[in-house]
Amino acid sequence: MANDRSGGRGLHRALWVLGTALLLVALGGVLDAVVRSVAESRLAADLRSSSSADRVTVSLHSTPFLLRLVAAGSVAGVAVSAEQVPTGSLTLERVDVSANGVLVDRGALLFDQRLHVLSIASADITAVVTPAELSSLLGRPVEIAGGSVRVQLGGRWVTLTLTVEQGHLLALDAGGARLASVDLATTGLLPSCPLVVATEASRVTLSCHLEPVPESLLATLSDVS
After folding, report:
1. Phi and psi at residue 36, in whole multiples of 5°?
2. In sequence order, what are the residues at sequence separation of 6 or more whose Cβ sits closer than 8 angstroms to the Cβ of residue 19?
3. 20 to 30 A Cα–Cα from 168, which one of 32, 56, 88, 197?
4. CB 81 within 8 Å of CB 62
């Protein structure tokens, strides 16, 4: 009988320990998700306000999120996607920023759920502009045909050349004349960088890789509200 009671107490204790451990894991998972979600929402709202974009989404990448944050004060990556981003007289259909190796202020993120970026190892940025947006800028019909961007001048279609000068000035030339020049750096999501212009089936992309990452992008990706 004594052995039975001892064995019962041992089993009860083991089940209690197991239940407590599972509860702590579950609570940790909930806390992990809450801190991440609130920080993402706050930064998205801040970026939407500062960039005047129609819509902004933010994703903080790290698994587990809180463990890495507490241990190393970092997150594996920060991904930002902004839609309809105005840059002066041109509206970019989309701007995507992917930052990797992000060192953050762990106190601000843990206790205030605000992302304060201290450093970024590298970042990739891609901006997208469509013929409709270029047409609105130039006040002339623009299309993509045969892998080239074309604009209608004097009743005929001519090649529209897009180049980036000084890392941030988008120049549009056709028929031997400059039709427009747009300063892309008016949005903090697209800092001055060696942008590569590529023409796709229905859009033009501007992309660059940053390593090291300028202070201006660190400031842009920090929630200062």
Report:
1. -65, -45
2. none
3. 56
4. no
Residue 210: is its pLDDT beyond 60? yes
Q: What is the pLDDT of residues 175-200, one digit of tens each?
A: 999 999 999 999 999 999 999 999 99
User: Strand ranges (DSSP E) for 154-219?
Assistant: 156-159, 161-165, 169-174, 177-183, 196-199, 204-210
Cα separation, 95 vs 124, in Å, equals 11
Compute CA distances 167 → 164, 213, 219, whole Å. 6, 14, 19
Helix (H) or strand (E) holding 224: none
Q: Where are the domains of the chain?
A: 2-220
Average pLDDT rounded to a whole number, residues 200-212: 96
Report the predicted TM-score, pTM, of the whole model to 2 decimal places. Answer: 0.83
> In terms of C-beta distances under 8 Å and separation of at least 24 residues, what long-range contacts does 89-92 make, across chains too?
89/137, 89/180, 89/182, 90/129, 90/133, 90/134, 90/137, 90/170, 90/180, 90/182, 91/133, 91/136, 92/127, 92/128, 92/129, 92/133, 92/184, 92/187, 92/190
Which of 14-28, 89-103, 194-208 is the least confident region?
Answer: 14-28
Query: ∠ CA(102), CA(105), CA(107), 5° rounding?
Result: 140
The Cα 190–Cα 223 span in angstroms is 17
- CB 62 within 8 Å of CB 39: no
Neighbours of 215 (CB within 10 A): 11
Torsions phi, psi for 139 (to 5 deg): 70, 25
